[in-house]
Amino acid sequence: MSQIEFTERGGKKAVEDGDLLMPKYDADGLIAAVVTDVATGEVLMVGYMNAEALKRTIETGEAWYWSRSRQEFWKKGETSGQIQSVHEMLTDCDQDALVLKVSVAGNGATCHVGYRSCFYRKIISTNDGAVRLERIAADKVYDPNDVYGKS
After folding, report:
1. For residues 85 and 35, what is the distance between their CA atoms, to the nearest angstrom?
2. Are 26 and 81 in contact (CB under 8 A)?
């Protein structure tokens, strides 16, 4: 599908100081992508891309990922209408992680559970030493059953 070609991974200086994208994928051929809201900076989700998903994202301006559970490409929002338009993509110094700054179409939600962000709970430690999750998002933005059907 893609006409984009990435430069072969070079030495440390080329990777850290150069102007060529030379992504470093993990053993499964994936690179982590932290997705944030372009307007607020809120972290919305973390996804994984292989080389083809990264190329599709660059070419289309819409976020594509590799679904580790389904072992297939996944255009975010294709089913839900919550398409992620990519405004900016960043890579870290080692080029082994990405940040996508996006706006989200439809109801503006990203999480398949119904919340705006997948990060709707925080980790807390209780007085008795238990570790719990505390919901920080007030309400769901939508009912997933309306979008994805009952599971």
Report:
1. 11
2. no
CA distances, 149 to each of 13, 38, 43, 50, 106 (Å): 50, 29, 26, 28, 17
Nearest 5°: the CA angle 68, 120, 62 is 50
Residue linked to tokens 């992680």: 97
Q: Where are the beta strands (DSSP E) in 8-138?
A: 31-37, 43-49, 64-67, 72-75, 84-91, 97-104, 121-125, 131-135
Fold of 12-142: Ubiquitin-like (UB roll) (3.10.20)
Band (150; pLDDT cuts 50, 70, 90):
low
Supply the pTM of this predicted model.
0.91
Torsion, Cα of 114, 60, 37, 34 (10° steps)? 80
